[in-house]
Amino acid sequence: MAINRQKKEELVARYKELIANSSALVFTNYQGITVAQGRSLRNKLKETNATYAVVKNTLLALALKESDRVAPEALLKGANAVVFCGEDIAKSVTALKGWIKDNKAVEITGALLENSVLDAKGAEALSDLPTKEQTRAMLLGVISAPARQLVQMIHAPGSSLARVLNAYVEKQQEAA
């Protein structure tokens, strides 16, 4: 079914908006997926601030070029649907992989991370990245470590003195 020029321009604008709000794009082959499964996958990904959209390859390529991103020709073939991942790539890809494992209806074909094109294995490996919360926790640990060490150094002489005094008092009580 052919679409008119106005609809194509609307689709390109929509793709550009999704690309601008995405840190990564994960390409999938959606052939054989039912409408109910598609709805289920969209709902699952919405929880991770990701959008799942069936795309027209030529229009997505145009939107990527207009957004100064690489248009991966190898991935822009066949029946494509794209997961436009929000800030937390790992959470989105993990949710996608979990849904695929349960439904066995979609296949990850690759990904676009900034301007790096990843194959299917590389795209699936994105789920191994730490989540946003894990990254914040690691960063907080690194930032707070020097302060924690400083506090320990400041309290060390006082606690050593307290242990010596406690040992002296116990020795005096044993002698009495």
Characterise the protein shown here.
This protein has 176 residues and is an alpha+beta fold. The chain contains 6 helices and 5 strands; from the N terminus they run H-E-H-E-H-E-H-E-E-H-H. The protein has helices at residues 5-20, 35-46, 57-66, 89-103, 120-125, 132-175; strands at 24-29, 51-54, 80-85, 107-113, 116-119. Strands 2-3-1-4-5 form a 5-stranded antiparallel beta sheet. A hairpin with a 2-residue loop joins strand 4 and strand 5 (116-119). It is elongated.
SSE inventory with pairings:
Layout: H1 5-20, E1 24-29, H2 35-46, E2 51-54, H3 57-66, E3 80-85, H4 89-103, E4 107-113, E5 116-119, H5 120-125, H6 132-175
Antiparallel strand pairs: 1-3, 1-4, 2-3, 4-5
Helix pairs in contact: 1-3, 2-4
Features:
five-stranded antiparallel sheet, 6 helices, 176 residues, single chain
Main sheet: which strands, in order across?
2-3-1-4-5
| Number of distinct helices | 6
Whole-angstrom Rg: 27 Å
**Helix-strand pattern, N to C?**
HEHEHEHEEHH
Low-confidence stretches: none
Mean pLDDT: 84
The residue fraction in helices comes out at: 55-70%
The overall strand count is 5
Shape descriptor reads: elongated
Query: Which strand-content bin applies to the residues?
Result: 15-25%
Structural class: alpha+beta
Q: Ends: how far apart?
A: 101 Å
Describe the main β-sheet briefly. Answer: 5 strands, antiparallel
